[in-house]
Design a protein that fits this description.
By secondary structure, this protein is an alpha/beta fold. The protein is built from 19 helices and 23 strands. The protein folds into three domains: 199 residues, no CATH class; 330 residues, 3-Layer(aba) Sandwich (Aminopeptidase); 46 residues, no CATH class. Bound molecules: 2-acetamido-2-deoxy-beta-D-glucopyranose (12 copies). InterPro entries: Ncstrn_small, Nicastrin.
């Protein structure tokens, strides 16, 4: 009979606990021990739920460091599968590290690291101890004056042109170390999670929690409960691209639902030509083309944090402005040579975009062949000119060939002449110096093409924040007066914009000459207003009225606030689309097509769909701010795939082509909460186990006596539910 009663009524508290509610205490006739156990269970479950509801504080503005892999290594960070937890300790000066590394009584610690201490020396110390379970890094304001670059000292080493067979004296940055402040942190493997705290107010919330609970007092440790942090960033892929791609491909052979653990970094290059060419045919072998190029991607230690102001935006904005200026010139359709404007994606990761284009040209999968290339001009970090000097870098190895040297000299002369009268002084970087890291190197690997790389640095980068989160508009000295509305800021012409427009003018004039133009070039002039708008859109706020008016209606979603230029694995990324539509706006023409004609141009006569691309864009808001007036833009802008040939060829261990992949993950999040003491946790655990055993026993008895219990209900009211 006792069994029957206990079995029956145990449904009540159990169900209540499962539903997350808190029920009243137990009937008095319960056994002393069982009553106690169940009371603890009920109290424990209620407390657990209220902790979940009231004390866990999710961190909403964070960026994780994730795992990337190449042919041989894994880099980046990860947490354990259920997230890593530790007691928070704020480290604002190096002395604070002692607590974490040696003195603190409550390891493991989650270190809240001040941005100014996020350097190699500190990271080595944290890496070498098991007392650290993770790291949250704040952004230093102002940016570290001594510079900060988690990139390599010798970027893209081994994938450019210099090797033991080609200019061995220049290989591995022997002559010039381009990025001396580079710490290489981005290329290391960390066994704990690292997150960036993007929002100063959230950082303050954490610091407050630390102040209230964790501050060591009078040398003795703080008392429980303590403020803790939990970081989730478990990564599925391990070891290397070879390992993870082989695993995926094996699975896809045997399984319908292969479990993919890593994806190649990939996107699209954007290209267009001054005179339209048949994009599905082949350009005449005799036809010569001048290539202008820049990269459009950047990187930092943290996933999808890549402002790239100097390392990418300054150059591609200048490039876009030059393209606009050239298209406006009256006689460009008469030029003897065509000009191709080329924007490479994924260059940060061992030249993904340019290596693919060269590969496609070699394999006849591109309208141009390498033989069509007359010369190559690349813009690469041009915003931080010292005394207006723009440096011209050439390749000393290919110039040892007489005929290449003659063509390179011609190229340099044309550039120098084009700068006369402009506020840009062009100077040669010197014959004894190799090319800086540049897409042009991938073309040189294939053929001795005459070319030049234009930069604001002669030897080491002027940019002290190469591939870091500090490569922001401030880094290229963009300043706006106080109190401008977003619309006024969009149109405000900064000094940076004026200076980049000068460079664009010089480049456009030089390209005109290179293409065989004989007229005076004084009419070719880049527009500082356009440059201003682009700088604002690509660096400060994508969601501005100009970008809104020039994109397709279904792309509205890509206009977030602060732009980031990471290449990623789902493509095209926002930057690619925006470069595409800005280029179409600046170099295209508006055609009088209806929406239907624009979306299906092949149906209209004379639309020449092989030569042109048509885009139905949103248009600007009418003065009533209620509706937009869409229109059709015709341009020569095209996209071409930027996936490393290594994946096309399934050579995942390639040393010739980029092999970078990004691991997949399930969840990335961070939160803080209070932890009770270890003793309390152990008591909770023991009680939990006791209850488990008890309920198993109870279930067993109920099962065993089910016939007795349920067949003859004693009280009809009790079976109502
Ligand atoms: C670096 O260049 C110097 C000549 O400038 C050469 O003597 C030396 O062997 C080179 N080192 C390597 C590792 O190639
Ligand atoms: C892969 O990356 C690591 C870390 O940057 C580097 O040491 C290694 O040389 C790279 N492997 C290849 C094949 O490029
Ligand atoms: C931070 O808090 C202050 C005052 O509470 C507020 O004015 C500011 O807008 C907040 N900043 C952010 C980025 O939310
Ligand atoms: C994050 O957002 C949630 C829900 O809006 C809020 O309760 C929480 O306080 C936020 N976190 C921080 C650290 O502000
Ligand atoms: C473009 O090239 C394709 C393939 O060679 C050809 O079929 C097509 O007629 C060409 N289009 C034009 C406009 O020349
Ligand atoms: C700028 O150039 C001057 C000489 O022309 C030189 O003294 C100065 O160090 C340079 N500044 C930087 C930042 O390179
Ligand atoms: C040229 O540029 C420098 C700085 O880049 C500036 O100080 C100077 O005023 C400019 N001169 C002209 C004529 O624009
Ligand atoms: C030079 O420009 C004039 C008009 O500005 C044009 O008629 C002429 O064709 C151009 N000449 C060349 C060689 O481009
Ligand atoms: C990029 O576009 C996606 C939608 O495709 C959007 O969710 C995201 O916020 C955009 N990124 C930025 C930085 O604006
Ligand atoms: C480019 O954008 C501007 C501003 O929205 C607009 O006035 C112009 O007509 C556009 N041009 C083309 C070719 O789309
Ligand atoms: C555009 O085309 C429509 C019909 O297709 C015609 O009625 C209209 O006049 C044209 N507008 C212009 C500016 O050519
Ligand atoms: C603005 O709205 C008013 C009334 O809603 C309308 O009469 C007028 O035509 C609109 N103007 C434009 C340019 O759409």
């Amino acid at each position: 009979m006792a069994v029957e009663v206990a079995g029956r009524s145990s449904g009540g508290p159990a169900m209540a606990a499962a539903a997350g509610g808190c029920r009243a205490p137990l009937p008095a006739w319960w056994g002393m021990l069982r009553g106690l156990l169940l009371a603890v269970l009920a109290a424990g479950s209620c407390q657990g739920n209220s902790v979940e509801r009231k004390i866990y504080i999710p961190l909403n503005k964070t960026a994780p460091c994730v795992r990337l892999l190449n042919a041989t290594h894994q880099i980046g960070c990860q947490s354990s599968i259920s997230g890593d937890t530790g007691v928070i300790h704020v480290v604002e000066k190096e002395e604070d590290l002692n607590w974490v590394l040696a003195d603190g009584p409550h390891p493991p610690y989650m270190v809240l690291l001040d941005g100014s201490l996020f350097n190699r020396r500190v990271m080595q110390q944290l890496k070498g101890t098991s007392r650290v379970s993770g790291l949250a890094v704040t952004i230093a304001k102002p940016s570290p004056p001594q510079g900060f670059s988690p990139g390599l000292k010798c970027p893209n080493d081994g994938f450019g042109v210099y090797s033991k067979d080609y200019g061995p004296q220049f290989a591995h940055c022997n002559k010039t170390v381009w990025n001396p402040v580079g710490s290489g942190l981005s290329y290391e493997d960390f066994h704990f999670p690292i997150f960036l705290l993007e929002d100063a107010n959230e950082t303050q919330v954490i610091k407050q929690c630390y102040q209230d609970h964790n501050v060591p007092r009078d040398g003795s440790g703080p008392e429980y409960p303590l403020c803790a942090m939990q970081l989730f960033s478990h990564m599925h892929a391990v070891t290397s691209t070879v390992t993870c791609m082989r695993r995926s491909s094996l699975q896809s052979t045997f399984s319908i639902n292969p479990e993919v653990v890593c994806d190649p970094l990939l996107d699209y290059n954007v290209w267009s030509t001054l005179q339209p060419i048949n994009s599905s045919g082949k350009v005449d072998p005799e036809k010569e083309v001048v290539i202008v190029a820049t990269r459009i991607d950047s990187h930092s230690f943290f996933w999808n944090i890549a402002p790239g102001a100097e390392s990418a935006v300054s150059s591609f904005v200048t490039h876009l402005a030059a393209a606009e200026a050239l298209h406006k010139a009256s006689d460009v359709h008469l030029l003897q040579r065509n000009i191709m404007f080329t924007f490479f994606q994924g260059e940060t990761f061992d030249y993904i975009g340019s290596s693919r284009m060269v590969y496609d040209m070699e394999k006849d999968k591109f309208p141009l062949r390498l033989d069509n290339i007359h010369s190559f001009v690349e813009l690469n970090q041009v915003a931080l000119r010292n005394d207006s000097v723009l440096w011209m870098h050439t390749d000393p190895v290919s110039r040892m060939n007489e005929s290449v040297d003659v063509q390179v000299r011609n190229l340099l002369d044309i550039l120098e002449n084009s700068s006369l009268g402009a506020n840009v002084t062009l100077q040669e970087a010197g014959f004894s110096q190799p090319l800086p890291p540049s897409s042009f190197q991938r073309f040189l690997r294939a053929r001795h093409i005459p070319g030049v790389v234009l930069t604001d640095h002669r030897t080491t980068f002027q940019n002290r924040y190469y591939q870091s989160m500090y490569d922001t508009p401030e880094n290229i000295r963009m300043q706006y007066p106080e109190g401008l509305s977003p619309e006024e800021t969009l149109e405000y012409v900064t000094d940076t914009a004026k200076s980049l427009a000068e460079v664009a003018t010089v480049v456009a004039r030089a390209l005109y000459r290179l293409a065989g133009g004989a007229n005076t070039t004084s009419a070719i002039q880049a527009d500082p207003k356009t440059v201003s708008r682009m700088l604002y859109g690509f660096l400060i706020k994508m969601n501005n009225s100009w970008f809104q008016s020039i994109i397709k209606p279904d792309l509205k979603g890509i206009l977030g606030d602060v732009p980031q230029h990471y290449v990623a694995v789902s493509s095209p990324v926002n930057t690619t689309y925006l470069v595409q539509y800005v280029l179409a706006n600046l170099t295209g023409t508006i055609v009088n097509f209806t929406k239907d004609e624009c979306l299906n141009p092949e149906k209209s006569p004379n639309s020449e769909t092989d030569m042109y691309d048509y885009a139905w864009v949103q248009g600007s808001l009418d003065p009533n701010l209620t509706s937009r007036v869409p229109y059709c833009v015709r341009s020569t802008v095209h996209l071409s795939k930027a996936l490393s040939p290594a994946f096309e060829l399934r050579q995942w261990g390639s040393t010739e082509y980029s092999t970078w992949t990004e691991s997949r993950w399930k969840e990335i999040r961070a939160r803080i909460f209070l932890v009770a003491s270890r003793e309390l946790e152990i008591i909770t655990l023991v009680v939990g186990i006791a209850i488990l055993v008890f309920s198993l026993l109870a279930t067993y008895f109920i099962n065993a006596k089910a016939d007795v219990l349920f067949s003859i209900p004693r009280d009809p009211g009790a079976v109502a539910y």
